[in-house]
């Protein structure tokens, strides 16, 4: 099975973004103890600064009261410890092993001795967690080249975004030049201890992820701008579509979609009704450049035509909004079109004359009404176009679905029938026997006013012709999506089930 490139690109982006989120906020980001060395500065060159001398004098040093320190060997370090995760860090979350159970972190300074330290930037309960008896302290280990000063930091409870700082004075006891970098070690449950950076710029990981997603969007944009590949059996040529006005919006949309990808296909439209379309198809003879769309089977007199089932369609009874009847029974519809009901008050409606907005003889929509509801038994009215209808009405006829909608909406007491998908808020849709048209009621045939839509050709057409390929597009291809878009059901559904019966 071929997977579209766009789907692969989108899936990759979703997977990477999801993995980054899970890693950052679920696996390791829930508890994150961050630290950074904000300052590690030698005192040399600063010895004349009175404020520094005062600061050093305020630190507790083992040399207090002893000989003056050699300030050229001193350095000042500022360490920031913070909770950078999404959960609070409790004392029980520290898992660093050691001889003192109060200690959760160690800061090691190779070649330097810690001669004094102070805690700064305390807030909330932090003073209690870093005070006397908390486990905070300084010590040393090793000798000569292996000498290192150590600061022990206690298991401090830190709420989200809470932090503290340690200011320490160090003395160089081994080596020359730049001292070795200090190291902080520790562990926390279901999280990690990480060295952070200042917030002066975005993180490298965030920048990398952003760059990846931007590149992904760019690739998708390029793919979206590429023209859709033509269908497997794309045909060229000219094709005139005639027939049902009820199906005209659906067929126009399907033809436009086909032509977007099959750029060599050119369509013309002349929808004037089912009967007129079939007659025009016969008149043009065995041409492959005309295709008729009909509401219902072709009927007698069109033996040379070949028909193909396209869709199961529904029609609905509609009234002027002022009639205000939500439902009509099948017998009531029959009485209306047989002329037995002349005023709406006869069936519980307003005291208003009934005006029948009818389709002209030969209309596939009218044929569907007569066969499905009227038992081919209705009053034969003299032909009166609705444009010339007397003011008190009774019955008049129009040619198209659009005219039915317009006259019913504008004429008090009017009732008509039309393609369900064409019904708008300007008219009132009426249920039949308490049932409205839907996919379920159409498939079950519990909704009475349904009809099978056909495509008709004059004789068999060549398989590589535009007529044949467009019919295949409607029956087996993407045209089925357009059929559903207009509220109809493709006769051949996506799993190959036959839906339509004559």
From TrEMBL:
Record flagged with keyword Cytoplasm: no
Organism expressing this protein natively: Nocardia fluminea
UniProt-recorded name of the protein: Phosphate ABC transporter substrate-binding protein (PhoT family)
Coiled-coil boundaries: none
Keyword Isomerase: no
Residue ranges constituting the PBP domain according to the UniProt record: 232-475
The entry's keywords: Membrane, Signal, Transmembrane, Transmembrane helix
InterPro entries registered for this protein in UniProt: PBP_domain (IPR024370), Phosphate_ABC_transporter (IPR050811)
Residue ranges of the TM segments: 6-26
